[in-house]
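Lab meeting, action items carried over

1. Structure of the two-component assembly. Owner: GW. Status: complete.
Input record:
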Amino acid sequence: MSTNMSAIHDKIGQFPRELEDESIYIMREVAAQFDRPALLFSGGKDSITLVRLAQKAFFPGKIPFPLVHIDTGHNFPETIEFRDWLVKETGAELIVRYVQDSIDQGKAKEESGKYASRNVLQTVTLLDTIEEFKFDACIGGARRDEEKARAKERIFSVRDDFGQWDAKRQRPELFDMLNGRISVGENVRVFPISNWTELDVWNYIKEEKMEIPSIYFAHQRQVIQRDGMLWADSEHLNKEADEIPFETTVRFRTVGDMTCTAAVSSTAVDINVIIEEILSAEISERGARIDDKRSEAAMEKRKQQGYF
Amino acid sequence: MDILRIATAGSVDDGKSTLIGRLLYETNSITKDKIEALESASKRKGLNFLDLSLLTDGLIAEREQGITIDVAHIYFSTPTRKYIIADTPGHIEYTRNMVTGASNAKVSLILVDARQGIVEQTARHLSIASLLRIPKVIICVNKMDLVQYQESKFNEIQDKLSDLVHKTTFQGQNVSYLPISSLFGQNITKQADEMPWFTGNTLLQELETFEFAETLAQAPARFPVQFVVRPMTEAYHDYRGYAGKISSGTFKVGDEIRVLPTGQTSTIATIEKFENSLDQAIAGESIVMTLSNDIDISRGNSIILASETNVPSLKDFSAHVCWLDHQALSAGKTYLLQHGIHTTKAKITQITERLDVTQQTSTNEVGQLNLNEIGKISLRTAQAISADIYAENPSNGSFILIDEFSNSTVGVGFVD
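Predicted assembly:
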């Protein structure tokens, strides 16, 4: 490791508690200002953090909104297993809707080729789910440090009835006052951990001693090498003839679908080592997200179409 | 670890995005893949150096026009602090974004082009930093490389700036002046070897050493009730907890409190944060409070100390506003006023002044206030709001105005 370890230890620091206070405040505003909020749950560390914050915000009461999982069918089995455990543990309500159903209904079309993934198709199922349950606010785990378009996102982000985001039409957000008033058909995406960085999330998971899916820690896995990244081998991955799977020790830094999240070589089985790895990593977090590599403005384009 | 929130401001092309890019680059906050992306994007633009401004100019429209059109949030940290930069555009028509970005800031970073000196926007930004009571202003005279790093040039600009600052500043505001070159990394995190005549702090040193002593904890105690927690489970059958974020001051278990606007009094039985019970909590903390007896409290009520003689309660008052919407503010119109988490109707009875923030002058008796204009208004609310005078207790002295029909946030106000 080329980075000086003491410099890394200097940087780890602590989780700034102010961030938790801010996020809990946002969670409570959602419950108070909206009739039918929902928490979009992907099984990744950011949405697990949201569940923890919601739990704290309403304690000793229960989380007053359901967790909604848009299941692409390409999830890591470990994520689903973890989701079901968390729901049991917190007593939260869980709603699952399937991308496969949108495909079967002809509303979404499966992509082809070796880069085929269902990440884009999720939007169709998400918008249908919002309509089905008449959700007026959907809480998501996006952070502004992840990507350039997200850096401009509001905490209460108003979307039209097609879920579209218009960067030029955003409401100004002043001080900590959140205006969640909407017209019929509109809904709001809420981002309580907007101001957290990846390191903040990991430090929080550590300080709170939170459980996370096992795939965040090093494990043996069949992978293929493609475009300089390690892709998890699975029935969902369209492989070319020369892409031969091999077993190695990896972990996931970010967890999306099996077809759009790359693994990193790692032997870290302990959260402290993971935090050290993040600080010395030469690749930023979304660098392991294959969906963003499609073009420089990939994220902004997806957001305009209703992705969160 | 504390968080220092910074708002940046400047005019078109004074190199603000480059400055932020440079700050991130020199504090090792940019990963290798982002630097590679930057290298290839810089090459495509035909540049033979790293265009650090591309790090923050994120939106498609911005890359097409080469300008910044919305508030972007940028994060970095040092062993001392976590920093959040609200990067706000300098265009006149986007002043509302500047006010937005600056509303949470403790530091305002203002850029001046060394070749041009003070421009209209400089005065505007200084005025806004004062209107918002931002405790520290750092004025960076940028592009010193283009004036051969001359000390005389910097001194000349600083003298003119001092005159202007003298007109806008308030007591307790700390203002400093730095000569820098963002493009060549002079005086950002490292001493400027091209400007040995400058012996002051680098920009990073200014940020690292700024102490914003938590005056908030000493301010009058204000606790707006956001949400009433009623689990109604067997274990918590009669539990009623009042959840919220303390906006200023300190509350302790055993304190006698008063609820506004009802005036009822009680005693704090517990202060809770999830499973932990605390003896006290201070401004900024999200807590749940329980009281010793059952009284009627709902969302939007405020809890203060019963001992307080100066009870904040306003129905007819005046305020400064910055208008944020294309549809002008006109006297006689009714809006929704949101103070913290409490919303009530408000009628604008009069617009008494319009300020020219670039000239530090004002016009009396005005019919309307347009987008990006700042003025003084009189207003009357349907229900009393528990607000303080902004200058005395900023965290409980601001409000927003919402258009009842479009639901947009159209103005921000500061209680006079």
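2. GW to write a short summary for the group page. Key points so far: The first helix of chain B runs from residue 16 to 26. DSSP finds seven helices and 25 strands in chain B.
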